[in-house]
Design brief:
The chain is mostly helical. It has 19 helices and no strands. 47% of the residues are buried.
Length: 506
């Protein structure tokens, strides 16, 4: 099977589980709010965000192992793959040990010391949740080498199936435990148990499918360890920065405004995760093509492709923004049975963060695709640190609604201009990648007209049932956008077939 077919198959499976996760969240989030309450659900989300920081102990080894296996597979060097797999398990065990030590230390600070309580208000269930978070990270790190074997051998669809199934089964298991009124730690523990079971099945499948990759041998080869650290270190800074950037809103709001306000950000953000995931899938699917083109010296082709993708991203973000600002509040109110009432400033903040993520992702994936990880790592790390600092400062000083401004400001001062600059330098290009002013003007006209049509439909549907009104406004925005863009925007951007393929990752 060709590389393209393998990548296409993997993308289809990834998108299937991505949208399945969105549909599942439509079911689980209202129930979490009902059974846990707004504050406890906010504490739960904060604990999950803290788990992302514990993943830093991986120091990029997950990505490095996958890449080394792929390179060895290209050379048909099975003995090298065997050595890489054994080394990755050894390093994963070491990282898991660090997580255990960190978790125990933090648990002691929460239970036996008043050092943290002097500065931050702590929830009574935080210690138990912390132990479950640590167990979750340990489980993920010990299973990661198995998924790396699938990914490195170009069987990414199998990894997507097991990981996607683990997320779905874990969510359902956690929801079942939350229904009986269990503590937050046990709710997350149910999720961990499901992930462990699916990870064990994935391990058995991988061992049965590729028994040669798990042959006995030395578990610590200095040369392999150095290669893992060298390869993984290229992206470690980028991974750290991205995690800090993503979790900055939740951590800042929970710490300086209160955990009960976290759902006001996380719930509308969950609505954007699926379409943003589709955009990221498009960018990720282009990495191999960028790498091949760079190897052939086709830098101009890369620049043109980036510009075209930016046009597509901007067009779809325009349509997404119209629908989100018009419908998100009504949908969330109906979705959560009135428990979450969103303010306009928070809607704008969430949309701004989502759009920023999609746009910067175009440059980040391009740089990694042409093997310029270090160029992207510094800007991403600076962006993540600044987002966390400014987010904390703004929420503490101006309230939780200011989190969007803080994140956008942090991005604009770092990745927003550094990533395009580094890509220009890598490609030897003097001018920028952004679409011309004519395209931006036509897109703005299309978005404005679509917004007006959607607003008129929203006003006219006030007497209709809420769900009917939401569908009417959504279909109105889609129809008007497609019709107007057919006249105002470039055909390759606005064709319905292109939009469908783009959204589904095909």
């Amino acid at each position: 099977m060709s590389r393209l077919k393998r990548a296409t198959r993997a993308t289809i499976f990834a998108q299937a589980f991505n949208w399945a996760g969105l549909l599942l969240s439509l079911f689980t989030i209202p129930l979490y709010l009902e059974w846990l309450g707004q504050e406890r659900y906010g504490v739960f989300l904060t604990g999950v965000a803290f788990g992302s920081y514990l993943m830093f102990t991986d120091v990029g080894l997950t990505w490095g192992s996958m890449l080394l296996i792929a390179q060895a597979n290209g050379r048909d060097d099975r003995s090298e793959i065997q050595s890489i797999v054994r080394t990755s398990f050894s390093l994963a065990s070491l990282s898991a040990g660090v997580v255990v030590a960190t978790t125990v230390s933090c648990y002691w600070l929460l239970t036996s010391s008043d050092l943290l309580s002097r500065w931050f208000p702590l929830h009574p269930e935080s210690p138990g949740l912390l132990l479950a978070v640590g167990a979750s990270v340990v489980c993920n790190q010990l299973i990661a080498p198995v998924y790396n074997v699938f990914n490195g051998l170009q069987e990414t669809h199998l990894s997507a199936i097991y990981q996607g199934s683990a997320r779905i089964l874990g969510s359902l298991s956690a929801l079942a435990v939350a229904n009986v009124g269990a503590a937050l730690g046990w709710v997350l523990a149910a999720n961990v148990l499901a992930a462990t079971v699916l990870g064990a099945l994935a391990t058995l499948h991988c061992c049965h499918r590729h028994p040669w990759a798990f042959r006995r041998g030395p578990f610590w080869v200095s040369a392999d360890v150095r290669r893992h650290l060298r390869t993984g270190g290229k992206t470690f800074g980028m991974q750290v920065g991205n995690v800090m950037w993503v979790t900055a809103p939740v951590v800042s709001i929970s710490t300086f405004a209160g955990a009960h306000l976290v759902p006001f950000f996380s719930v509308p953000m969950s609505l954007l995760n699926a379409p943003l995931g589709a955009l990221n899938s498009l960018n990720a699917s282009m990495q191999a093509g960028y790498g091949e083109a760079m190897g052939r010296g086709e830098r101009e082709w890369i620049a043109r492709t980036v510009q075209r993708i930016l046009q597509q991203v901007l067009a779809l973000l325009g349509l997404l923004g119209c629908g989100f600002l018009l419908l998100a509040n009504n949908f969330v109110r109906l979705w959560t049975s009135g428990k979450i009432e969103l303010e306009d400033r928070m809607l704008v903040a969430v949309l701004a963060i989502g759009c920023t993520s999609a746009l910067t992702g175009v440059f980040r994936f391009t740089l990694t695709g042409i093997n310029q990880h270090r160029r992207a790592a510094m800007s991403e790390l600076m962006c993540g640190v600044l987002a966390l600092l400014l987010g904390s400062l703004f929420v503490w000083r101006f309230g939780y609604q200011s989190i969007g401004l803080a994140v956008i400001l942090a991005t604009g001062l770092t990745s927003g201009w550094m990533l395009p600059r580094e890509l220009r330098r890598a490609l030897g290009k003097s001018n920028g990648f952004w679409p011309d002013e004519g395209f931006i003007t036509r897109l703005a006209m299309t978005v404005c007209c679509t917004s007006l049509a959607g607003w008129a439909a929203l006003a006219g549907s006030a007497t209709l049932p809420p769900l009917v009104g939401i569908l009417l406004v959504g279909l109105t925005c889609l129809a008007v956008f497609l019709v107007l863009s057919g006249f105002l925007l470039q055909p390759q951007v606005v064709a319905l077939r292109q939009v469908i393929r783009f959204a589904t990752g095909r």
